[in-house]
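Supplementary Methods. Inverse-folding protocol.

Structures were first reduced to a discrete structure-token string of length 89. This string, shown here, constituted the complete conditioning input.
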């Protein structure tokens, strides 16, 4: 039986095999879950007002503040499984 960490790492590799691009919101959700699962709470400064992409990424990650590593890993794995069915031929 594989551990949660092993399943998470496998999902992080599997997401690279998508043949179609998920939506921007889906990518932001994946990014935020991955960062929260690997780094923890966001303690970086908010990007400047002209860095729109960086600001969105920061906001999505910050919204997960206090969420456990394990919970984020589980949610990340579930999203990757959903997207593999949706975005891979």
């Amino acid at each position: 039986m594989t551990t949660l960490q092993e399943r998470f790492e496998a999902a992080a590799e599997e997401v690279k095999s998508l043949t179609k691009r998920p939506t921007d919101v889906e990518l932001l959700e994946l990014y935020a879950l991955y960062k929260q699962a690997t780094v923890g709470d966001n303690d970086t400064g908010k990007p400047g007002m002209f860095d729109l992409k960086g600001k969105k990424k920061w906001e999505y990650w910050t919204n997960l503040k206090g969420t456990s590593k394990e919970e984020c890993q589980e949610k990340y794995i579930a999203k990757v499984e959903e997207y593999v069915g949706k975005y891979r031929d």
